[in-house]
Amino acid sequence: MKKQRFTWNEMTVGVCYYPEHWDESLWESDLDRMLESGIAVIRIAEFAWSLFERTEGVFTFDFFDRFLNLCILKGMKVIFGTPTATPPAWLTEKYPEVLNTDKNGVPMRHGLRRHYNYNAPVYHEKTRIIVEKLAEHYGNHPAIIGWQIDNEFNCETNDFYSEADHAAFRAFLQKRYGTLDALNAAWGTVFWSQTYTEWDQIHAPRPTTNGSINPHLHLDYIRFISDSAITYCGIQEEILRKYIRPGMFITTNGMFGHLNNHCMTDECLDLYTYDSYPNFAFMLDRTGKLDKLRDRWSSKSLTEVRSICPHFGVMEQQGGPGGWYNRMEAPTPRPGQLKLWAMQSVAHGADFISFFRWRTCTFGTEIYWHGILNYDNRDNRRLAEVREFVSDLKKLQPLCGANSVASFAIVRDYDNVWDAEIDSVHRMIHNQSENAIFEASQLYHTPCDMLYLHANTTLEDLTRYPALFMPHASIMTQERADLLEGYVKQGGKLIVGCRTGYKDEYGRCIMLPMPGLLQKLTGTDITDFTFTSPAEDTPCAEWDGESFAMPVYNDVMLPLEGTQVLAKFKSSYYAGEAALTEHTYGEGCVLHLAGAFTVESTRRILAHLELLEPMRQLAAAPENVELVMREKNGQRWLLALNYQDVPVTVELKKPMVSMLSGHVGDGAITLPPYSAEVWKV
Ligand code: GAL
Q1: Does residue 151 have its Cβ closer than 6 Å to ligand 1?
Q2: Are residues 597 and 624 in the same domain?
Q3: Is the CB–ligand 1 distance for residue 439 below 6 Å?
Q4: Which atom belonging to ligand 1 lies closest to the Cα atom of 253?
Q5: Mutate to test the pocket of ligand 1, among 273, 356, 357, 372 (most ligand atoms within 8 A of CB)
Q6: The whole model's pTM is what?
Q7: What sign results for the dihedral spanned by CA atoms 593, 597, 600, 606?
Q8: Does 361 contact ligand 1 (Cβ within 6 A)?
């Protein structure tokens, strides 16, 4: 399935370092202090283009040569970044066509980063030259263990509207559709006289009367952006492969929108790395209060990262408070939190954790984006925590390369992820349900994975899970329907929600009763549907005498022959109609919920399917603790993470040895505030 070509032999700690930000007299003591603290790898150079090519075509390497020689001397390992996220001023002044623009065609000028576009031929040329020069020079460097391509594709913006993008969009569409007739049909351009008669009339989105555009064009535009980023990444990868020593890996970092990260990883990378800033994950609930999970939402992103690359790295692990010179974003990590968040990454499958950054920069945009050290460069509590983390990690080495054990998977595909971005109905039900399902999995200690369906997904990828939640796949293709059918037939449990299966791959609605291609599996027929009115109470359903909410959108659902009704609506004009059904198909079954999921409906469904709390024979933990299970060669480990500022009690149901303290734990165990424990099962 995934082509991960690199795995870590041991769990490793790193840090991001910018030699160009500091006086050279600091280099040696910085490297010494890092190594003394257990930091074995640094990432460098990803924004340093103008140090290598200060004027066009003139290349100098002395600065990084000097620094890398010191790394050899000290025994520091290096991940080297290609600097293409920050084109130098001479480049964008001389070749303004490399700049990204806004929808109005106004260029994004020099002064920040990621202001280039993926499609300008001259940017491809300049990229090839700088990457080739660097790879030629450093491809066999003894200190370098891996390469990071660019920095955070699609961060800052994931929309591109330059002239080069309009032209490349046309080429993308010509390849996809062949003829204008096919494109006009796919996009339904007969609606409002949008028919195209020449390819040149087609553009990436531009301003319209009220900002809305043809939704089918929009969906193809996002696919095109993803394709452009992957092609651009591939240009760099191809060059690096020619020069780098065998054993060096190629990666990139971050996880951003309008990008099929799975495809990029499979096609171009040996390893995927993520940038984890759990403080960003704070979310407000509908009443404006912080919700229950807060920084535990980062576990959802890490779960997604695991679906891209099971044994990933974290290239940037939050090392301090965050903010730019013009905004404050994340408060300082409380004592214990920094280490806890690093353990959160480890719990979810990271074998490499690199903190961002060694020391806070004293100038520039990110003066408030703190690293481990403050401007004053003294040892501080954050460095002490990094040291503790390093010492904990040494004890956790047996977990390197261990797999996560999940009770079910949340199923996604990029067509639906992007359709949900465009279509507000889809977006609302998707966000409500996916977050509720994840929250239930967290609160009720029923770990889940994420599973993306691709053209190359096999039945075996699905059958690893006893149950799959695919909450609202509006777009359903025959291939995916066949895959799901195979899964259910052999005994899988599939759970779907309202608004399933009513669109084709272009995002057009199909003229079949919902849930369209899945009707045979669900054994249901949607005869009517409605958005739930904010002016009325949220509709409820009843299951075995207990009520649960059916928010956002409701389908009025007819059970077909052989389909059992588990719950019925209690309110609205469809009171008494089926709200949740179960249909046996082959060896498996399909549950169909006629609404969006809530934490409560998910909990009840998991209980019904006997999947709830799979670790209950080992431990009982309160809702505010995350429990994770990892497994390698038949050995299992139980991890418990306390995200609260108060101690919590976990009740061990059998004696287990703590990997961290070496003590045997049994019965009530107190986890201090912001801490983690790992037991050998
Ligand atoms: C990341 C980025 C880093 C740094 C950090 C803090 O998104 O890769 O270069 O900018 O955020 O803003």
Answers
A1: yes
A2: no
A3: no
A4: 8
A5: 356
A6: 0.97
A7: positive
A8: no
Do residue 384 and residue 458 come from a single domain?
no
Q: What is the DSSP string of 217-252?
A: HHHHHHHHHHHHHHHHHHHHHHHHHHHSPTT-EEE-
Q: How close is the Cα of 274 to the center of ligand 1, in Å?
A: 11
Structural domain containing residue 382:
12-158+247-398
Q: How far is the CA of 47 from the centre of ligand 1 (A)?
A: 11
CA atoms of 24 and 43, how far apart (whole Å): 17
356 C-beta closer than 6 A to ligand 1? yes
Which pLDDT score is estimated for 535? 80
Strand partners, 449: 409
Please work out whether the CB of residue 626 comes within 6 Å of at least one atom of ligand 1: no
- Mapping DSSP to helix (H, G, I), strand (E, B) and coil, where does residue 256 land? coil
Residue 593 and residue 672 in one domain: no
Of ligand 1's listed atoms, the one at least distance from the Cα of 152 is: 8
> Do both 520 and 628 map to the same domain?
no
User: Which residues are marked as active site?
Assistant: 152, 316
Say yes or no: 391 and 438 in one domain. no
Separation CA 356–CA 372 (nearest Å): 7
Q: Which of 398, 429, 455 finishes a domain?
A: 398
In a domain, 558, yes or no: yes
To test the pocket of ligand 1, the residue of 84, 86, 150, 151 to mutate (highest count of ligand atoms within 8 Å of its CB) is 151
Within a domain: residue 202? no
Q: Is 162 helix (H, G, I), strand (E, B) or coil?
A: coil
For residue 624, being part of any structural domain is answered with yes
Give the pLDDT confidence score for residue 331 in this predicted structure.
Answer: 85
Tell me phi and psi for residue 112, to 5 degrees. -125, -125
- Sorted by sequence, the CB contacts under 8 Å of residue 67 that are 6+ apart come out as 19, 27, 44
360 CA to centre of ligand 1 in angstroms: 12
CA angle 311, 313, 315 (to 5 degrees): 170
Q: How many domains does the chain have?
A: 3
Residues 52 and 22 placed together within one structural domain of the fold: yes
Q: Which residue, 371, 398, 425, sits at the end of a domain? A: 398
Q: How far is the CA of 539 from the centre of ligand 1 (A)?
A: 43
pLDDT at position 211 is 92
What's residue 4's pLDDT? 64
pLDDT of residue 3: 63
- Low pLDDT (below 50) residues in the chain: 1
408: β partners: 448
Statement to judge: residues 132 and 74 lie in one domain = yes
Q: How far apart are CA 271 and CA 232, in angstroms?
A: 17
* DSSP of 613-650: -TTTTTEE--TTEEEEEEEETTEEEEEEEE-SSS-EEE
In a domain, 32, yes or no: yes
Determine the pLDDT at residue 479. 98
Count of beta carbons in the 10 Å neighbourhood of residue 203: 17
Q: Is 304 in the pocket of ligand 1 (CB under 6 A)?
A: no
Residue 17 beta carbon below 6 angstroms from any ligand 1 atom: no
